[in-house]
Amino acid sequence: MHVSQERYGDTLVLTPIGRVDNSTTDRLKSGLDAYIASSRAGGNRLVLDFSKVDYISSVGLRVLMLAGKEIREQGGSIVVAALQPVVREIFEISRFNLVFQCFGSVREALTKVSPTALAAYDSAHGT
Amino acid sequence: MVEIRTFVEDACTTAGIGREDCLKVLLIVEELFTNTVTHGYCEESESPVWIAFDPRDTGFILRYEDAAPPHNPFGEFRPMDTGVLVAQQPVGGLGLKLIRSLARDASYSREGERNCIRLTFATSPSD
Fold first, then answer.
1. Average confidence score pLDDT of chain B
2. CATH number at residue A37
3. Across chain A, what does the average pLDDT equal?
4. What residues make up the domain containing A87?
């Protein structure tokens, strides 16, 4: 599992790729920690693109929960996009879908999160 | 866990279990194994576990065993309070919640020197 990132305007899109399990959760945590450390108080927006995540275990959910708490305490926002079927089911079982706003795609998430980011995304993707 | 993951994926393929159901089994086995190593074997991950699949007409049975001291993980399981968000739930209960929700049925028995967990799954028709 690794985490790629793209910035669109004032919003960062983090894309974990693979399985978020016991052996890989640290990589997701590193990506989130780096974002939290570098983000400005009150001005940070993050979209977690889960389109390439097969599943997430309870250890990974805990990392997400703590990161979300920290980001919100800084006055920022974090949303989740493009959950795959098994991950969506895990989110619903654990009710993480109530903790994080979930969107069908990154573009849909950016529509809600930031018009500036949406414009940058559309420009980059030719939409 | 790598060896276990490979075994589970091979067993799912052999038993004709689809990808999404296989991912759920992998998640459950990881949660069980993490519980075994952390609590049963006190971080000694070289101690053995036993995993077996028993395909049935409409699903399959997963049998998971370890040789840790007697412990029924479902004995202390409490369904999540639907009025309380996951962020306020005990962390240790999340893995159990996933197991209980993803499997159709779950039971525990102590057989000789082993903890035996028996999980029943219904395979997805479309998977």
1. 83
2. 3.30.750.24
3. 91
4. 2-118
Q: What's the gap in Å between the CA of A7 and the closest CA on chain B?
A: 28
- Binary contact (A21, B20; C-beta < 8 A): no
Q: Determine, yes or no, domain membership for A32.
A: yes
Across the interface, of B2, B23, B91, the residue whose CB is closest to A55 is B23
Q: Residue B56 has what pLDDT?
A: 85
Angstroms from A41 CA to nearest CA on chain B: 23
Tokens for B123, please give them.
């395979």
Closest by Cα among A17, B19, B38 to B1: B38
**Beta-strand relationship, A53-56 and A2-8:** unpaired
Alpha-carbon distance A34 to A36, whole Å? 5
A50 at interface of B, judged by CB pairs closer than 8 A: no
For the beta carbon of residue B40, count every other beta carbon within 10 angstroms.
20
**CA-to-CA distance for A28 and A93, rounded, in angstroms?**
21
Is A72 part of any domain? Answer: yes
| Topology given in CATH for the domain delimited by B2-122 | Heat Shock Protein 90 (3.30.565)
Is position A127 within any domain?
no
Please provide residue B111's backbone torsions phi and psi, each rounded to the nearest 5 degrees.
-125, 110
Residue B56 and residue A96: Cα distance in Å, rounded? 33
Q: What is the pTM of this model?
A: 0.86
pLDDT tens, position by position, A46-98: 999 999 999 899 999 999 999 999 888 888 899 999 999 999 999 999 999 99
Cα–Cα dist B118/B109, whole Å: 8
How far apart, in whole angstroms, are the C-alpha atoms of residue B112 and residue B116? 10
